[in-house]
Amino acid sequence: MPLRTAAPALVGALALAAVAAPGTAYAATQPVKPQIIHAAVSSLNIGLTGKLTFSVIISAKDAKGVKSIKALPYPLASKAVPTQTDVAKEPGSSLPTLARTATTLTVGASDVINVAVDRFPDEIAGTYGVAILVTAKDGSTTFAAKGATYSWTRADVLSAKPVSGTVRKGALLTVKGQLNRADWTKRVWAGNGGQLVQLQQRNAKGVWVTKATAKTATNGSVSVSARDDASGSWRLVYGGNTISGAAVSGTSSVVVK
Q1: How far apart are CA 179 and CA 238, in angstroms?
Q2: pLDDT at 10
Q3: pLDDT, greater one: 168 or 1
Q4: pLDDT, tens digit, for every residue of 107-140?
Q5: Of 236, 3, 33, 241, the residue nearest 118 (C-alpha)
Q6: 94 bridge partner residues
Q7: What does DSSP assign to residue 25?
Q8: Distances (CA, A) of 214 to 31, 172, 188, 199
């Protein structure tokens, strides 16, 4: 992925992990002295413009001191999970040191992604695990095959418009909309077909209540109908999935006569 790699271990390995996971399966290890006390990686919902910050931070402690922390990402959809040996041997698994004490070590980095400039393929979207290897100064190790998780999703946008601004009480109200998803490869918003979309109405207490659901057509268009008994606001909602971000349309007011 052509990103400025201030977080080289995860940003640099991410594109490779999306297409080829390590070939060896993870084997459980016996408990050891070092302890992972914090591990966080940014989950990003990425469209076609704007700037986002991708960050990685991992902390560990050991009574005799922590020598190093290494990390390697992999797609959770893969059947292969990195082993301790995979992480130890991966050249890009080391992260810059942020802080160190006699018993703790914190590593990590961050990178600002300029979405309009930095390019990456659609195949990279998904949920990832991060295998973490901590080595203490006395040589003991702790390995967590899924020490952290994060996701990169393709942003979605959803529109909604009632067929009519007024309906008779108890009559069917039809709302039409369009669900589009960011196509990172082609740099366009493309119809996201085959997705479930909810038609919601805001009740007297201000709570949004789902009245009906429908699946988007191949081109991302959708039409949903529900009976309307009271004037109020309506919207469409898409919950997203492992590669698509959730989306909520704007609201529209409908008067019941």
Answers
A1: 8
A2: 54
A3: 168
A4: 999 999 999 998 889 999 999 999 999 999 999 9
A5: 3
A6: 70
A7: P
A8: 49, 15, 25, 8
Tokens of 171: 């009559």
Going from the C-alpha of 132 to that of each of 16, 34, 64, 82, the distances in angstroms are: 17, 12, 19, 9
Burial profile 19-39: b = 16 or more Cβ within 10 angstroms, e = fewer: eebbeeebeeeeeebbbbeeb
Give me the phi and psi of 208, to 5 degrees please. -80, 125
DSSP H helices, the chain, are: 13-19, 84-89
pLDDT at 32: 52
What class, spelled out in words, does domain 156-256 have in CATH? mainly beta
CATH fold label, 8-153:
Immunoglobulin-like (2.60.40)
Sequence-distant (6+) residues with CB within 8 A of 117 are none
Distance (Å, whole) CA 232 – CA 252: 8
- Cα–Cα distance between 24 and 55 in angstroms, integer? 27
Q: What pTM was computed for the model?
A: 0.82
Q: For CATH 2.60.40.10, list the domain ranges present in the chain.
A: 156-256
Rounded CA-CA distance 197/176 in Å is 11
Edge-to-edge, what's the strand order for the sheet holding 126-136? 44-46, 141-154, 126-136, 66-75
- Measured CA to CA, the distance from residue 60 to residue 39 in angstroms comes to 9
Tokens found for residue 195: 């997705």
pLDDT at 80: 86
How do beta strands 196-202 and 104-114 pair? unpaired
Distance of CA 152 to the CA centre of its chain: 4
Rounded to 10 degrees, the C-alpha dihedral 63/150/108/15 comes to: 130
